[in-house]
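Two proteins follow. First one:
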Amino acid sequence: MKKIFTLIAAITFTGVAVGQTILLANTYSLVTHPGQGAAGKDVSATQTSLGATLYGSGQNRNTGYWMASKIVVPASGWYIDSLITYGYQTGSGTVSTMTGLYCYISADSSSRPSSTVVIGSKSVNALLTSNWTNIYRTPNDAGPFVETDRPIMKTKSNLTGTIPPGTHWVVWSATGSLGSGPWNPPSTVLGSLATGTNSYQYVPTGTLVGWNGTKDGTSQIEMPFKLWGKISTPTGLKEEVLVSSVSIAPNPVFNSATVKIELEKTAGINVSDLSFMVYDQLGREVMNYSNISSSTFNIEKGNLAVGNYFYKVINKNDQASLKTGKIIFQ
């Protein structure tokens, strides 16, 4: 007998310590036929044998389309380290053409995303990286799977901040350099179409304008995402749990500056475990000091344009963000 699986948002945090970076919410399920695609890559098949017709839902920020998925934050609260979403542009090849990821956490309003932004931004590009998942989205499930037009990309954001307990929505939209999409492939479970009821799409025009539940035909479907972060204390976990302070002098920086990082005595890590990263206002990495050997080190402005930037101190062991702040280059 074939087993039918229903996909639900996995919010698992039992048995982990406060401050440990974990997967807080996860609706990722894309691979239906492992290793059966072109060149032995994985396949995410549109299950036409079950009546599916949807390759992907629109998530093009430039035309006003957004995706959202509901989360329920426990009484302890969450501190978010990053959001990962998935998308493709038809004909892109395996080098990502994604140029932007715009994301935020919204408060709930009548079981829909509200206009209240808890963390993140509707207008600031939060894209950090975008890479091929080694998965092709295919237009049927009959095989052989030779289609390569829709390589699915994983896009990672720099979304960070504390979310209080209660019902919230993860909201995102994307941009790309090609004319097609970006499109959001649905979470796909082999043998089942109805994968959940927590995902919505914002449609900007027409008779369906507003937030609508995502569907493939009449079946409710989820959209894949992963939300990484930490369980907060009842008063909200501070990201400085391992790093007591970061000082930059001078700041504004004209040519060079000295950075001093002070760790908590009980942090359990060394400065060699840290990276000092600098990002511009579009969330693009412009500086990376990943070979830190001393708590005090120098950084150089180099060819960076004058303006406001922000930095992160990252634990290389788990990629957790330990401290953020503002840095100005003059």
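Second one, unrelated to the first:
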Amino acid sequence: MTITDTMLLQINYKSGKPVYLQVVDQIRAAAASGHLQTGELLPAIRPLAVELRVNRNTIAKAYTELESQGVIETLPGKGCFLKANNSPLKKDVRRKLLIEEIDQAVVQAHHLQVARGEFLELVRERLDALEERKRVNETSKYN
């Protein structure tokens, strides 16, 4: 099982956000949401880099950042694991992280002159698309 079996990691090269930070944010979000469990082994750097089609140094940098944040721990010879004490990922912190992301999207919508109704419809469409991707992933795992 790969990390992308338990969660959807997506790299957006047009976002302006460094790829390693996208990986950090998505792994943190997966840990916060429970998609990754305490003690769960993260994939090795090289295979994940191949799977995401990025340089392995990018994944190494993401793991180093996650370790410095106290989200994961590296056990020499065994790999990287989600730390049992992932206190930065409590419910209020998860909410704060989500609010920051939503605020960025709202500001972007304002700058692009997207009306409230249109923005909310786009959010619904994106949620539906995510659910569809998850459904397809679940279906393909069993076929």
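SUMMARY FIELD: Residues 3-86 form a domain with the Arc Repressor Mutant, subunit A fold (CATH 1.10.10.10). Residues 70 and 97 are 16 Å apart (CA to CA).
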